[in-house]
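Lab channel / #folding
Pinned by the channel admin:
"Please post every new chain as: sequence first, then the structure tokens as a reply. Keep commentary short and put observations after the output so the thread stays searchable."

First post following the new format, from NK:
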Amino acid sequence: MKHRALSLGLACLSALAATLASVPAQAQGLRLPSGTGTLPVGSAPAGGVRAADYIVAVVNSEPITNNEVRQRAERVAQQMAGQALPPPGAMAKEVLERLIMEKVQVQLARDSGIKVDDWAVDQAAENVARQNSVSTDEMYRRLAADGISRERFREELRSQLLALRVRERDVESRVRVSELDVDQYLREQQQQAAGPAATALNLGHILIRVPEDASPVQAAEREKRARQVAEQLQAGGDFAALARQYSDAPEGSQGGALGLRPADRYPELFVSATQGTAVGGTAGPVRSAAGFHILKVLERSRAGAVPAMVVQNHARHILLRLQPGLTERQAAERLEELRDRVASGRADFAELAREYSQDGSAKNGGDLGWASPGRYVPEFEEVLNSLSPGEISQPVVSRFGVHLIQLLERREAKLTQREQRDMVRDAVREKKLDEAFANWLQEARARAYVEYREPPTL
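Reply from TO:
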């Protein structure tokens, strides 16, 4: 359970398709429509289906329509806010290839008998709503206002979960990380450390979105709001709180942090705006096609460097693995009953883990020990980070099964040399998984029958 499996940021075929469709089970940057701006994947105008739709490709007898390409292109444009977009023709082709890849994966999952039950889809929908800071009812209301039915949205979630599971099954077993791999990675990082591309940034981001069809008055009003937020920051305001209150970016509900990444993985606008900004300082507002951006330099370091200090979690869990006769819903119901027994004082978590958990940690009462960031798969770690010491989660679905997680302690710790190597091992594994997945995608694509019809247009 402690190794990091296939990242949800899934490698694809080109720079534009640097990630496949985000998996809504983790909310993946899906920001709900608010009546203006770009619609999310699977959407259609409130008036219904676009006129003059047509089939652009067929994948093993299943069609892909031009509407699907246009809708996904809108999603891509939203995710690339602040970056230069390719010409419409190039984007249409790239998006079509992305949709073909997704359909191939979903078909493989279904042909293999892999299923996703309604409970897993329910949890995925709840995660999307939670990370957009709305109730599920409000989420479905907003989606309906933009022409996206509840059923269509849920089927999109189900398809992407199916695609994720077939990737987990077919790719993860291919990857092994040796001590030589770790040593080579460390040597490469030392060689790269002298170059400017080695800089890594963790930026806080607040976006005040400006609709594409905004009038000059509306644009001026949004700029005024952005400047007011910037003034509050300069006066000592809390960035995370202001991001949650004002930001229209997907990460706003989580405090606006974009995470530590190489500088060249940020939009050039963000890098240039923060070039001379000290750690802790803010920049902006700066304007892009998406609106006004306010940025805070949370961290700046050499890319690939292992941090000396990290926040570690000490947790334990109970894992029920999915198998014939045990669906996600059934596993969740069993874990909910175990959670109630612990909460009421009728049972001890560790004893229940020894009795019921289907993980190697069961003999230790489910104890996973101390773990640094990145040690667990994202869907597990996200929930763990949201817990307070002593708190027990609701059932959580991951690629391994369904978990009940309890956070025991949290601390800030200086990493030992062995722990630093463990973090490097996780990074190497993730890199090799991306490479293995890219190869697997090519193999799956080559085996599929794909017939191109009329070229897509945006």
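NK: Residues 417-447 form the longest helix (31 residues).
TO: also worth noting, The mean pLDDT is 79.
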